[in-house]
Every structure is written in C-alpha cells, then in structure tokens.
Amino acid sequence: xxxxxxxxLLTCCLFTSPGMAGERTVGLITKTNDNPFFVTMxxxxxxxxxxxxxxxxxxxxxxxxxxxxxxxxxxxxxxxxAKGILITPSDPAALLDAATKARxxxxxxxxxxxxxxxxxxxxATFATDNFRAGELIGAWARASIGESARSARIATLDLSEAxxxxxxxxxxxxxxxxxVDIKDPRKMYDEDDAxxxxxxxxxxxxxxxxxxxxxxxxxEPGIDFVYAINEPAAGAHPALRALGVGKDVLVVSVYGxxxxxxxxxxxxxxxxxMQYPLRMAxxxxxxxxxxxxxxxxxxxxxxxxxTTRA
Length: 310
Prior knowledge:
Largest sheet: 7 strands, mixed
Number of domains: 2
CATH class of the largest domain: Alpha Beta
C-alpha cells in the first residue's frame, strides 16, 4: 500500500514595493539543474510563463549550496532589467544581500520552496510548510512502529550542518513528530534524546546520501530508522540494502515526487510528504503578473493555507 502524506502549502504574499511595468522578463533560479524536484519546477515555470506571455530566463547553482552562483544570477537578472525573480535559495542567509539589492533596484523577488529569514527579506514566499511536512512524517513513523518507537535508533540525513531554513524546519519537524524534545525549534543538534544515533550530510543527493548512510552504519550498526531531508538523500536505501539491512531499517523523506512515490510503492521508502513544485512556480508567476501596472505599490494579500492528504 502506498503511504503518502501531502504537506501543507503555504502561500504568503508580502508585496511592498512599486509594481512591475513595461518589460515582461522574469527569472527562475533553482538550487540545481539535476534534482528532479527542480527539473519539474523549471518545466512548470516555462509552461506557465508561456501561457502568461512572460519571457522566462533560468539559472541554477552547480550544486545544492552554491549560493555564489545564485547570487550572481540575481545580479545578472537585475542588470538585464528583469522585473521579477523566483528563487529557491540554497542558503537564504548568504543571499540576503543579493535579494535586498535586487529589490532596491525595483525587482520583485519571490522565494520558492525555501523561505528567507526574516520572511520579509523578499516580496513573497510560496513554499511547503516544511516544519509541518517533517512533523507529519515523524508522526507517521512513530505510529507505524508503535511501541518500538521508545527504543528506536534514529539517524537523520540532513542537507548539511548549516542552519539553512528548509534544513532546520524539516529536521525539527520530523523529530517533534516522532516524539523527541527538540528544545529550540530554530536549532538542530541540541537534542539530548538517546534515541538519536547520529546525523549525516546528504547534500540533497543520492551519492552523498549513500556515503553518509554507510558512515553512520559503520559508527552505529544498530540504526533502525532513517529520516532523509528529500528523496535523493534517501539514496541511503541502496547503502542499507548493500549492507544486508535494507528490510530492517525504515526510511522516510520529504518530497513526494514521482520517483519518491515509486520508491514508496517498491518499499524503498516507508512514507514521504508530498510537495507541489508546479504550484509553487505557477503561483509565483501569477503573483508577478498580478502586480503589473499597479499604481501606488503592490497589493497586500493575506496568507492562505490549504492542506490535502492522499
């Protein structure tokens, strides 16, 4: 049976600057070009931009965490006269300066997938409620193993040790859902729960996830439960299978892409929380278009939350 949790999609509009006018050039900057999540987002953005009559220019970092390349892309789009930028920031803190300068130049900046902190560092954010997504997965995991949750040995495959918003939110949400006292929800690795066996940096990729899982199992062979920040990180499962414990360790993740759903059906992942990259890209572009030609500034709009489950 396929187990799939659809995470909350949070739409938060914080329009405050002068409206878009004239040119129809907009940009999309993703974390990478090879992650299926961002491939889907780019495809959706192209289709939506064509439908809305917008010229879309796309950029991506060379790897997840390549903030320098993303900052250069922001600068290039602003210099080219782009009126709006959609960005999935690898490290929001490292991109604050670039986003601030672009907005000061009159460019509408909208975050997708990964929020900035503070949220009003950009004009709007369209993203999964990442804490809630992690919490749902953690609660499912705890319920699925019942009393064994009291003595579970948990490993987390996070993006890295860096306090990137999406990294912290999913990690802390998962642990809370599993029943761990997370202390400060804004900080990872301050928990003192003996069930946490360790963590590894997956970099959001299958290769790094595989290597991190191997290292964790060498240090703590009793691990029987793994949380992965996304499905590429759940490349941990082949590592577990190669060690002969693929059927003994339960893996969960956040993403819910087609490959992830297939992995759930195949038993490689116990459950995943679904996100909506197509909706994120579409809503972001619609927000850009809706601000076109508005005299007297951009319209404020209330946060809107919707939740579905399958």
